[in-house]
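User: Here's a chain of 123 residues. Predict its fold as tokens.
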Amino acid sequence: MTSPTDRIALSGLKVRGHHGVFDFERRQGQDFVVDVVLEFDLRPAAASDDVADTVHYGELAERLAAVISGEPVNLIETLAERLADVCLADARVGAATVTVHKPQAPIPLEFADVAVVIRRERP
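Assistant: Prediction complete.
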């Protein structure tokens, strides 16, 4: 039997945080936009039609937002790793892909987006 490729995706979670290398980033803060994709077997939830058998994405969003708005870090790589840990805290999740967008990054040129994407699997 192959592993399920079922996914739950939460896209565009926008939360103010104070992450960055520069003092002004930590002082002023900026918006971070996060996308997560959780990979796990959704068949139990589909069969039971019960939210207890899946990841409650509203509660997940709140836990992710608490990390984003919480303790500042220098790098969005570090932030992404912490968010992946939140996603993998649910034992049913086999893998999580986290994208952290920093649309107001201090780059003195016009740009559309800066993002870090990581994928972490349960050992």
